[in-house]
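pinned: reference chain
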Amino acid sequence: QVPLVESGGGAVQAGDSLRLSCAASRGSFANYTRGWFRSQAPYKVREFVAATTRNGGTFYADSVRGRFTITRDIAKNEVYLQVESLKPEDTAVYYCAASATESSTRMMYARYYPYWGQGTQVTVSA
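pinned: its structure tokens
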């Protein structure tokens, strides 16, 4: 059983919005940094999208800053990614992850996240 479960993906038009959710299927990640990554093809490196620390700090990739918003509900043990003004280049499988790191540098790299979900597909057509 994977520790994290994503939902909310789908096929949309350019300019549309989606809200991705990430729930913990087991364990508590309240004290973890929670991140979102995406991969545009199988076995490609997972690209950092956004992260939020246990204290509420938020970090974004330059490509999504201003369009994507990461939030978390500690009571529900869930993290969300509001994605707006979607572009065809945002098409990817989106993964949520959890890490003990609070380094603003390390949180941008998938290798520092030991806990992952299986991903949710977002497809944006022009």
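why pinned: The CA atoms of residues 13 and 125 lie 5 Å apart. The chain has a mean pLDDT of 94.
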